[in-house]
Amino acid sequence: MGFHILGDHAAFVLYPLALLYKIYPDVHWLLAVQALALALGALPTWYLSVEAGLKRSQAIAMAAVYLLYPLVFNINLFDFHPEVFALPGILAAVLAARLGAIRWFCVWMILVLSCKAVLALTVAAMGLWLLVFEKRRLCGAIALFSGIAWFIITTGVIIPFFGGELATIGRHLSRYQHLGNSFSEIVKNLLLQPGLFFKSLLSLANLEYLVLLLAPIIWGIYPKHLTPLIGAIPALAMNLLADESSQKNLVHQYSLPVLPFLLLAVISSLAARRGWLRPRGIIIWSLVAFLALAKYGYFGSIYLNSLDTWKGTRDAIAQIQTSGDVLTTHNIAPHLAQRSLIKFTNVNSPPTNLNKFEYILLNLRHPGWKSSREFAESLVNKLQANPNFKLNFQQNDVYLFRKTNRS
After folding, report:
1. DSSP per residue over 65-124, as a string?
2. Among candidates 277, 273, 200, which has minimal Cα distance to 242?
3. Which of 7, 41, 112, 218 would be 167's cystine partner, CB 3.0–4.6 Å?
4. 16-62 pLDDT tens trace
5. Alpha helices in 225-344 (DSSP H)
6. What would the pLDDT profile of 141-178 be if each residue is shown by its tens digit?
7. Number of helices followed by number of strands (H, E) in the chain
8. How far apart are CA 26 and CA 34, in angstroms?
9. Burial class (CB in 10 A: 0-12, 13-18, 19+), 393
């Protein structure tokens, strides 16, 4: 990205994850750990249901609600996101708070805060809910103050230090520039020009987003049992106020911090003997919602698009034997990430100096995100005319160039 990884989201959890690459450097580690983390969220969901007094059949149904919630499935199809660990982490933290397990609560809080800087706001909001409505004063105070403190530290010190203005503005505030050009300006406008915020909130896109979010669990949503949603307010507000469509669907990761509190609200309703479905009906409803909103169809469509160059791509990757710097497509980059420098082709930001790369791997047929066939072809032409590079591999529109002059 052009800056230190901590300048992105201050995701310290990436450091212990990187140790897996010491065993064997392969992107499948991340996909496997992500899938495991998402699946494990069903366990605290079940325990929270039992702790709330639900029958065994209802607890099993709630675990099924979690596993069949479309977002849980869809997020595992789109890249790797460290905040997936926050999903079971938040649920486990609430369980620890209710059981009075202070040490475990702190452990889960540390995990959640290490996933992404903005989750500090979710932790703070959860702390307020625990403090005021759950009467878990110590856990609530710990979450409230640690969340506020960590948000100030990460956004005021860590991210600016490691990422500079490119990380702070370009990555974090660009989706809210209609509300202000800085965090302080956004807060100022919130107080002095609330009309800007109401205009952003009242839109058809937001209405559609809320319908998608609530549809899988609408049978268990009752106004008297919505206090857990206090913890979801920061993430929900950011999604509703953003001008980015990816924050308003059940495909991307942005709604993950909302889901635990939706589940807690439903569990609260069931514990109060509300809800208009029996356990079997709950599971059927969840299954229908999954079939309607989960993106399992990708396995028969977009995931097969590049199958025609799969063998050529694998053979080309196998020829990259060193940890030298690489320029490649967005899709191939994760398979070669274990090196100091790797860039993916971007038509809006073409490389100014090809000679700084030892390997350049291109796929003309499938040029990848933010690229095009024309752009990839222009790079191939430049490399063929560059005496510092030699064509090492070519098959099915897959080209691998290696630098001959390493000086």
Report:
1. HHHH-HHHHHGGGSS--GGGGHHHHHHHHHHHHHHT-HHHHHHHHHHHHHH-TTHHHHHH
2. 200
3. 7
4. 999 999 999 899 999 999 999 999 999 999 999 999 999 999 999 99
5. 233-241, 259-271, 279-293, 310-318
6. 999 999 999 999 998 899 989 987 666 655 667 788 88
7. 20, 5
8. 14
9. middle
3-state secondary structure of 21: helix
Q: Report the candidate in 67, 71, 80, 145 with the shortest Cα–Cα distance to residue 113.
A: 145
The residue assigned the tokens 């059981």 is: 99
CB 377 within 8 A of CB 304: no
The number of C-alpha atoms within 13 Å of 49 and in the hemisphere containing its C-beta is 26
Distance CA 391, CA 360 (A): 9
Query: pTM (2 decimals)?
Result: 0.93
Note the pLDDT tens digit of each residue in 312-327: 999 999 999 889 999 9
pLDDT of residue 166: 64
The pair of structure tokens assigned to 314 is 């694998």
Measure the CA–CA gap between 132 and 72, rounded to whole angstroms: 29
Of 259, 233, 210, 286, the residue nearest 58 (C-alpha): 286
Among 343, 365, 219, 338, residue whose Cα is nearest residue 281: 219
Distance CA 19, CA 95 (A): 29
Task: Give whole-number Cα distances, 264 to 99, 102, 381, in Å.
Answer: 15, 20, 57
Instruction: Kindly state the helix (H) or strand (E) to which residue 330 belongs, with its residue range.
Output: none
Q: What is the number of other CB atoms lying within 10 angstroms of the CB of residue 136? A: 22
